[in-house]
Amino acid sequence: MARWQPRKRRKFLFAGLLVSLLLVAVLYVARKFKSQSCSDQEARTTLLKLCEEYTSNKVTGNLCPDLCTTHSIIYRECLNNKKDRKRVMLAEWNAHKVILKSRYSHLQDYKSLMPEYMKDEGKMVTSLPDMATFLMLVQNQLRTIFVVDTPDITRTEIVKKMWQMPWEDHETMSTAAMESLWALLQQDEYLMMQYFQGNKHFPKIYGSCGHIYVMEYTPPGDTLSPPLVFFKTGLPVELTSTPDWDKRANVALGFLTFLEDLNTLYTEPLHLCDVKHENYGVSADFTIQAIDVDTAFFETKMQAILGQKSCTKNEDCEFVHCESSCDLRHRRCSKHRSNNNLQAICKKIFVGHREHGPPYGGLLRFPPAAIADRLNKALQECVGPSDGDNQSQRASAMTLETIRSILQESLQSNDRIS
Predict the structure, then answer these.
(1) Residue 245: HSE in the Cβ half-sphere, 13 Å Cα cutoff
(2) Which of 86, 104, 118, 369 has the smallest count of CB within 10 Å of its CB?
(3) Rounded Cα gap, residues 181 and 126, in angstroms
(4) Burial environment of residue 123 by CB neighbours within 10 A (0 to 12, 13 to 18, 19 or more)
(5) What's the distance, Cα to Cα, between the start and end of the chain in Å?
(6) pTM to 2 decimals?
């Protein structure tokens, strides 16, 4: 028996060393993540500066009193990357979590409305524009996301849609109101979300103060964005069991509905060019919400972005996750996208392929054995589709329906068992 004790001791020492290394790795990643996050001091300074501007009547907004006077909106945590100029903060408002968001930290980081105003003869003036000119500027700003004029909406209706403060058609806006709305309109994400308020796939925007807007808190959750490592007897739980398959399948079905609805959202399809799990929220009924749309573009603008790039190979024509092909003869990227939203979601969310960052098994990792082969085949076709001659590069509607049918089958099978 004594002969076996050194061997057992070595096994225990090896197991202990393995667990220690895993813990060190997790602590290292957590510390690195924390070091890359903005500090509370930076975030609080942003809010303090904003409230000073509100007190000085330089900015306004329907939620300025809640943020700066009654303090019913309470700052909790800064969420954005330290190197990112965008400011994203978690707060509480009437016992509910909300997100405070702005493209830049301070009002001065945005273009002032006054330098934007020129007289007909081209001479710059230092006074604010009159309301007619301001309404025209607002309409022009909306073109940054739509490119073409939005149908069936007047300039005054655009202002009322974009601004949550009371305003009548005949009224002249104050300097604070104009500057605050102008800062908001320079944020494509705000424009997109505010324009489509009421659509279930966009978080609710409760209002704003100055250049910062307050939106619904809809996180990805552990189903879509699982913790990095789960420990159970020293091993990752994700490698040994799949107790949350039904939840993950329902979230995936929510994504398929989300993708279909994007095609009817507007007169042009919306292209998602930054597809990662943290850019989407999941509601209680598995509705997918786009919570970060900085790189989402409608067709006309997508074509303009892709078609302006020069190239020597196809890889030169990638705009984040929106891909195009290279015309080698003219060394110019095609203005037409060669992949589509479904393909990007399959690759980045369902399968979980990443170029950088920690490993992520994908939302549809470890499916039940009864559907595993068929689902994996459908996902492979979705990520790398072909038409037999290897010409097609876009995932098809038929592939979407195949994935949906397989997922629904697995859920119905589990319902019968339970």
Answers:
(1) 22
(2) 369
(3) 18
(4) exposed
(5) 48
(6) 0.82
